[in-house]
Amino acid sequence: MTSIIQNRLVDEREILIVGLGSVGRRHLNNLQTLAWNRIRIFRTGRSTLPDVDHNAYPVEHDLTTALERRPLAVIVANPSALHLPVALAAARAGAHLLIEKPISHDLEGVSALEGVVSSRGLTALVGFQFRFNPGLQQIKRWIDDGAIGRVVSAQVHYGEYLPGMHPWEDYHLGYAARSELGGGVLLTFCHAFDYLRWLIADVDYVSAFEPRRRPLDVHVDTCVDVTLGFTSGASAHVHLDFVQQPHTHRLTIVGTGGTITWSHEDHAARLYCGVSRQWHTVPAPDGFERNWMFLDEMRHFLACLRGEEQPRVTIHDGVETVKVVMKAKSAIVETAPCAEAT
Questions:
Q1: Number of domains present in the structure of the chain
Q2: CA–CA separation, 74 vs 249, rounded Å?
Q3: In this structure, are 16 and 142 located in the same domain?
Q4: SS3 call for 7
Q5: 217-272, pLDDT tens digit by residue?
Q6: Domain range for residue 186?
Q7: Residue 291 lies in a domain
Q8: What is the pLDDT of residues 99-153, one digit of tens each?
């Protein structure tokens, strides 16, 4: 009976969405799909998306005023470099958190957020939606079950043409192209660092290289090759770029007893068994599309708020990913500073 009353109290409180760009609107739509309509929106009015009518939900333009209403949770969906101030203010106000990836553009102030979340007993989930990809979840089960023996190495290739990512805006103005907003390919595509840590082990070595010619007339990292070493002894090569057409995102994991592959083209997980010398394929569920991951993530977040589940991607996970990015950025500076495109 107590849990029923607790869930009812949770369901009656508001969730505040901070930022109504593409991912903020996605979270709003997914809350509606999941029949959660107690929503308030904080807006600065600087979104590059065409404005839309959200008269169904109250809008705030002052964060302090919004937090004084004591929201149950805050979804932090503003540009990456602005995540931490909002998350800290929300946590200090007693709100649970869903923070879009990356948790921040650097590590300054992150320990303070960890401390507030811990001391207040708050739920905090970092929005790495690929943890909710059914193909990668199948790969996690295979690795944990020893289906390919000991993991030796992994390769990730993740390329997408920056001007085509948000076709409604001048890509020069979007957060991904602006260093002051936490842009650059390392932060924008840091999903790879998160899911490799999840699938293999913690990272204890990072090196990186960026070509000296920087395309697209932007002043952020646009094409980077990163080498990772894991505490398990495995290694990985991660290629990230803002240049490739068409969009390509694929993963290969090599083990002592076989190989695993995955690609965004069909989201199927494939396992080659060295003993049987045969491939085994687990296709994506019928009807799977990209929003599936975000919807499942939101479903999980609501379950965490009700005390039914624990966050699958913690602040610690978010911090470890930012550490990898920071080490890669430092390695680029130390080895080969980029020249401007000519």
A1: 2
A2: 30
A3: no
A4: helix
A5: 999 999 999 999 999 999 999 999 999 999 999 999 999 999 999 999 999 999 99
A6: 133-286+320-340
A7: no
A8: 999 999 999 999 999 999 999 999 999 999 999 999 999 999 999 999 999 999 9
